[in-house]
Design brief:
- With 320 residues, this protein is mainly α.
- It has a single domain (2-317), classed as Farnesyl Diphosphate Synthase (Orthogonal Bundle), CATH 1.10.600.10.
- Helices cover 78% and strands 1% of the residues.
- The chain has helices at 2-7, 9-22, 28-39, 45-57, 62-86, 97-122, 127-153, 158-185, 188-212, 225-228, 234-240, 245-257, 262-275, 277-296, 303-317, and strands spanning 90-91, 94-95.
- Strands 1-2 form a two-stranded antiparallel sheet.
- A hairpin with a 2-residue loop joins β1 (90-91) and β2 (94-95).
Length: 320
């Protein structure tokens, strides 16, 4: 992401200040938590997509910085709520909000971040930007609930899986790219083009996350965690559709009843690798990455386009 950070050096500073101002509170406890959130921010991947998409089609401006801040506010709010739902004690090698301040405060902090995002847009009449990103939040909730429903029944087909990740993960990145483009052009067609671009990148990003779960790379969550949580991701879905009935029954039994047993989970992972589930998922990931790059290719060559391409490749080549 070096080129992106180099090109966006000044933009990221302005975004950082905008975000910091947006989360300020007059309640001492909230202010302490917001300071902790600002300090523990991650790679800022989504704000970078907002800023680069704006610069790809025009010039970044105050609306762009607010859009990037709104994306980060919404993303952070969903992560805080996710950690409560998952009872997660860590996030990006920092203690999670619920680990430090307990669930009740964490839920309220997530709500606060959502409300600050709404006000940031409403107070500045960024209605179209807010509409784009509110739609993403709706889809994220629908995607999560669909995943929970299908996990309970262990009945996830490939088209349902893609529907889940398109909503749960890709929708926010798609709306972030659309918001960035719209902030610089107020052009719906351009915003829609970048929305499609962001969706494809987001799907590739999620498949990469799913692949990590079957590898041995230290990424901050245990190998086989998705199986332990009874989540049917693409490598497993492919495997279940391409093995004999007896093995399929065994895998389904383990996922339902023995998903905490490390040896049994290891056996499933070995079967996935043997059946080509990893290779298939990787092939799909690269397909979506290449479709995203094909959309970028319609724009004139520039450092900004190169930086966006670098970010796209980072989503599939990253080691964490």
């Amino acid at each position: 992401m070096e080129l992106a950070r180099k090109i966006l050096k000044e933009d990221l500073k302005i975004f950082g200040e905008t975000f910091k101002q947006a989360v300020k509170s007059h309640v001492p406890l909230l202010d302490s938590i917001m300071h902790y959130i600002v300090r523990s921010k991650g790679k800022q991947l989504r704000p970078m997509f907002v800023l680069l998409c704006a610069r790809l089609v025009g010039m970044a401006n105050t609306t762009t910085y607010r859009a990037a801040s709104l994306v980060e506010l919404l993303h952070t709010a969903t992560l805080v709520h996710d950690d409560v739902v998952d009872d997660a004690m860590q996030r990006r090698n920092f203690f999670s909000i619920n680990a430090l301040w307990k669930n009740k405060i964490a839920v309220l902090v997530g709500d606060y971040l959502l409300s600050k995002g709404l006000l940031l847009s409403l107070d500045n009449n960024d209605f179209r930007i807010l509409q784009l990103l509110s739609d993403a939040v709706r889809k994220m909730s629908e995607g999560e609930l669909l995943q929970i429903e299908k996990t309970r029944k262990l009945n996830v087909k490939e088209d349902v899986y893609f529907n889940i990740i398109r909503n749960k993960t890709a929708s926010l990145l798609a709306s972030a790219c659309a918001a960035g483009a719209y902030s610089a052009t107020q052009n719906e067609e351009t915003a829609n083009q970048m929305k499609q671009f962001g969706e494809k990148v987001g799907i590739a990003f999620q498949i990469k996350d799913d692949l990590f779960d079957y590898g041995n790379i230290n990424i901050g969550k245990p190998t086989g965690n998705d199986i332990k949580e009874k989540k049917l991701t693409l490598p497993l879905i492919y495997t279940l559709n391409h093995i004999d009935v007896s093995k399929r029954r065994n895998i389904m039994y383990i996922v339902k009843n023995k998903h905490k047993d490390k040896q049994q989970v290891r056996w499933i992972i070995d079967e996935i690798i043997k059946a080509g589930g990893m290779d298939y998922a990787q092939q799909k990931m690269y397909q979506y990455r290449d479709e995203a790059l094909a959309i970028l290719a319609h724009f004139p060559a520039s450092d900004v386009r190169d930086a966006l391409e670098e970010l796209v490749r980072f989503t599939t080549d990253r080691k964490y």
